[in-house]
Structure formats: structure tokens, C-alpha cells
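Quality-control log, excerpt.
Job 1 of 2 completed; input and output follow.
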Amino acid sequence: MRLAPGSHELEARGSMPASDTLTLAFGDVPQRTRVRASGFKVDGVRDDGRVEQAVQLSRVVTAPGSDVLLQSGAGSAGVELPAAADQVSVTIRGAAGEIIKTINMGAQDAGIRTFRWDGSTDTGGRAKDGIYTFEVTATQAGKKVDAVKLGAGVVQSVSLGNGDLQLNTIGLGAVSIGQVKQIL
């Protein structure tokens, strides 16, 4: 399909399995674009709105784990709280265990909560893309709340192993479908 210059909107209706990746390829690269894609990770759009030769939309899932994938300067992961907490904080660490970033999530209700990391560091710099570990500290009235860390991964493929559906991800590795807590 060839589009005339101007503003265009593409709407995809219906559901896509978590393993699907949607790629939008451009013959004539647009000057600027805005992509809104709920439930997908968006690659190929720079911070200034300029696009590469293609825009790729991939599903991101969370499952128990302690890794956060920083990709294109952004990352996300989650925490599952069995009870409300009046203070939740996330500490992101580098490969040598050094503190890279502390994120204060404040008070949170019980349930699954997602945090986003913009790649900034506590020293004012920018972290390089890669896989980092994180820790969660949660308290209610000064007492520890046992939080479950939920790492995030970008789904690359799906396979069947030992009678169980496995999601093969960047960030979490192979994850059983039963372990998935969220599809972001």
C-alpha cells in the first residue's frame, strides 16, 4: 500500500498472541512519527520522533526474576506485593553489584505493580543498554513486606518443551507460560 504525504493512522484490531512481533517497514522514511502501542515494546523510533527504516512492536512479559533489560535507553520490570506497602523502592545494580539507580515507588496497594526505568543513573549519567539486576524493598508501618521481584523480557519465540509452552525471551531467558504474571 502506498500512502500520500501527510498524517496517517494505522489501527490493528483483534488480539495477537504474546509471541507475535509486528514490523512496519517504510520505503520512504517518514520525518517524524508517533507510535502508540499498548502492550508492546516499540523499537525503531528515536527520542526525537524520527524513525529508522522500520518500526517493530514486540510483546513484553513479566515473570518471577531479578533482571531488568535496558534496551534503547528504557526498561521496565515489576513487583508483586502480597499486602499493601507504605514504602516501596527498587535498587538497580550493575554487573559488579554497584548501585546504578534507586527508584522510589512510594505507597503501593497489594498486587502486581510495574516500574519503568529511563536509563538515568543516580549520578546523573545514562546507563548503557544491557541486563541489570534489581532488588525490591517494601515496608508497611516499618515492617517488611515480602515482595516478589518480576523481571521483564521481550518475547522472541515460543516453543513446546516437556509438554509445557515456553516463551523464549531477551531478559528472562526461557519462561514457562504458567510463570508469566503480566503481558505488558
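Job 2 of 2 completed; input and output follow.
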Amino acid sequence: MGLRYVILVIVGSFALPALFGGPITVTEDISAFGDLNQTNLSVCKSPTGVSLACGPAAAVNSFVYLEHTYPSIYGESLVLLSAPFTQGMGEVITGNDLGSDTFMGCSCATGTTWSNFYSGKTSYINLLAPDTTVSSQQTVPTADYIASSLNSKADIEILMVPTSGGTGHYVTVTGITYDDMGFGELMYIDPLDGMFHVANLEGYDSVAGLEVSYIAPGGSIPQFLNIAFAATEAPVPEPSTLILAPLSLAVLAILRRTRR
């Protein structure tokens, strides 16, 4: 029993679902995220005033999470939060900067492409907080990828696209609950109103990805969207973390052999 106890302690909570089965639930502190409403940004607005700035706004709400979660690393380098600024003022300043041609190049007609979103966000971080952050992205991300990112206290934004084609929508993920088939719930901050929401996950397809039954803030009719892309950021790992990561994988392999 002693060896198994030590192994479970080393692997940590993220391995427990894999060992014992059942739904997986991972959440982050909702209060740590930003609350930027994309309509408050001056960039990415159509001639009729419709805002397409969900990409920059979703990134800002993640930046606030990084600053609240890792204050000794980021301080207020990404978003100004304190006097003489308010958090709302700082979020708008950063959002407009991100949406500009210098970073994401958000279009007033089509919004932000994924390549512009990811490259613009990483460029912004590298400019204002150099050598602090590891970024990653995944096409058609699995629920496991989202959960492991949340479990490691990374921020994560996703781009959801309509199954029938059309303009996608960015949100900042705060939690996920799912089973082996990809059914469950997705928790997120929606830049359409800057508030917390929950949507149903309707399964996973290896080509289309996780399907989300998304209801826009203030709406009542669900729209079925697929998670096409995900991006994460987290502080550069400490050396001890780099050592434990491969050790955890080795321990899982041992456990699998002993359970046969």
C-alpha cells in the first residue's frame, strides 16, 4: 500500500479520473478573470456599430486571470488594474491595443482569424512580459486538453465555429465537466457581456471537435458550435515541475501494468 500511496501523491488529482473512471470536473476561480464586454472596445466594429471584438476581449479576460493568479510574475504588465486606473479602464486599453493592426488585426467585417489571434496574443505577452510565459495551441482540442490546461492553472481561450459555417466566437474557458463521450458542461466568460455562463457539451467528433450547445447572452435559442481551436498560456515552469511531469507519466505506465 505504501508504494501505491506514494504514486498517487506524485501523480496528483489530474490522474484520478484516469485511474478510477467517471466524469471529470476541473474549474478555476471565476473571480480571478476579467469581465470585459467586447462592445466597450472601439476596435472591430462594423459600420452599423456591431462589435466583432470577441477575440481581443476574450484574451483580456484571460490576462486578468494570469495577473490575479500569478501576481509576482505578471504584476500589471498586461492589464492595468489599479489607481489611477480602474480594472474596467485597463481592460479597455489592453483590448483596443490587442485588436489593432499591431497585434491581432481585428477586422470590422470578419473579426479575428485564429492565426492573428494566437500570434497577436503571444506577441503582446512577449513584448510586455518577456520570458515569463509558455504558450500552446491545439486544433480541434479534446476535453482532456482543456481539462489538463485548467488543472495546471493555465488560461485558455477557445474559438467556437458554427457546424453549418459562418463567423465563429471566442470565449475564455473557466471550467469543464465531461464524460468519456464528450458530454457534459463548459464554463466560460462570454465577451458578449463579460459574464460567467455555462453551456452543454453534446459530444466529441474527431473531425469537427467538441460540440457546444451555445446560447448567446440574452437569448434563448441554442446554436450548435464546434470548438475548432484552443490556446493556453501559463508561466514558464519551475525546474521541479519539469522533473515531476515525466515522472508522473512513468508512474501512470507502472500503474497500468500492475492493474492488468
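Post-run check on job 2. The chain has one domain: 2-259.
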